[in-house]
User: Which sequence fits this backbone?
């Protein structure tokens, strides 16, 4: 492991030879550049100098404010950095996770590295379609493995979207209000677009509206929706993050039926953990079959797994004949110990 030109440091990838970080959680000072894969809060910090897509730049600006040196790359365009102690080429590829989410392909004298950040292969309604083609045959693949266990094999998204619309229709027909729980960046927009043709009255939480506005500025279209105010809510569909439920609930007149939208819905006890009436397995992360399919498509020389079931998934890859090992093990331990915030997605990332 020590001969590798990168290291896993406090949840991030560090390439010391290039003064480059991939998704550093802590703000990096002058002299170090940070690739920010996407704008979820567990992937951003107030860095001095970043490499990102335009969408990620805008979303970071909305969430963090402040000023930074920004190297903005369109997908597929290669940028060379040629400075003493930091010579490499970087290309951003669509990750399919949320708006602007990118994987980074870094090439330098030591070899080529694809880092996925959060990703999914299935086309969604709120992200660009993942495409790792340019990374085919790279030396090293570092991939997230949030759902790296076989039990996390999601049903087709179209089926789940129909189930969500049906849940909302039935709730409203019974005179009640539907509350769809999903984080404000990515999942909420997926839900809004899921309801595009349903012609239902939609109310969104303030943070959802804020993030949706950036999508709209970049040309994405959404069905009509109103902002949550102090007015009472009856027979509507409310979209809000789980931590917004406490402000939504007192405004609902009559009965509320709550649905949680998360990949963890594959766990039988998911809806009880969320104290919800229903749980739907729609995720912005790759499920287990997609993780395997992704490795097959990239066909790297070596694979390193991070997040979620990193060790188990590395073993799965070894059984399939790949040279694979886990870079992070802690997440799995946390899950085994029942880390509630992680499982419930309260970290705004799952
Ligand atoms: Zn994320």
Assistant:
């Amino acid at each position: 492991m020590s001969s590798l030109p990168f290291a896993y440091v406090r949840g991030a990838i560090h390439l010391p030879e290039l003064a480059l970080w991939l998704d550093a959680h802590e703000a990096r000072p002058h002299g170090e550049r940070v690739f920010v894969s996407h704008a979820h809060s567990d992937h951003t910090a107030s860095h001095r100098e970043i490499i990102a897509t335009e969408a990620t730049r805008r979303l970071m600006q909305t969430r963090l404010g402040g000023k930074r040196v920004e190297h903005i790359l369109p997908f597929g365009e290669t940028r060379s950095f040629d400075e003493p102690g930091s010579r490499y080429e970087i290309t951003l590829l669509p990750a399919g996770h949320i708006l602007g989410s990118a994987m980074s392909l870094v090439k330098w004298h030591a070899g080529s590295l694809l880092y996925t950040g959060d990703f999914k292969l299935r086309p969604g309604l709120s992200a660009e379609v993942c495409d790792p083609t340019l990374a085919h045959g790279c030396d090293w693949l570092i991939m997230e493995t949030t759902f790296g266990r076989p039990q996390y094999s999601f049903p087709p998204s179209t089926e789940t979207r129909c189930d969500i619309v049906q849940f909302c229709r039935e709730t409203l027909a019974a005179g009640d209000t539907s509350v769809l729980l999903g984080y404000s960046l990515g999942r909420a927009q997926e839900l809004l677009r899921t309801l595009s043709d349903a012609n239902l009255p939609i109310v969104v939480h303030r943070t959802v509206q804020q993030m949706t506005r950036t999508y709209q500025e970049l040309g994405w279209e959404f069905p009509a929706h109103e902002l949550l105010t102090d007015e009472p809510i009856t027979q509507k569909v409310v979209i809000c993050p789980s931590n917004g439920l406490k402000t939504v609930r007192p405004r609902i007149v009559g009965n509320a039926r709550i649905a949680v939208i998360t990949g963890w819905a594959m766990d039988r006890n998911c809806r009880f953990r969320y104290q919800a009436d229903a749980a739907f397995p729609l995720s912005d992360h790759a499920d287990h079959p997609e993780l395997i399919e992704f490795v097959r498509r990239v066909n790297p020389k070596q694979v390193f797994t991070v997040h979620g079931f990193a060790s188990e998934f590395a073993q799965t890859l070894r059984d399939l004949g790949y040279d694979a090992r886990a870079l992070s093990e802690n997440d799995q331990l946390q899950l085994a110990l029942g880390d509630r915030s992680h499982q419930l997605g309260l970290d705004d990332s799952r």
The first strand starts at residue 7 and ends at 9. Residues 157-280 form a domain with the Rossmann fold fold (CATH 3.40.50.10890).
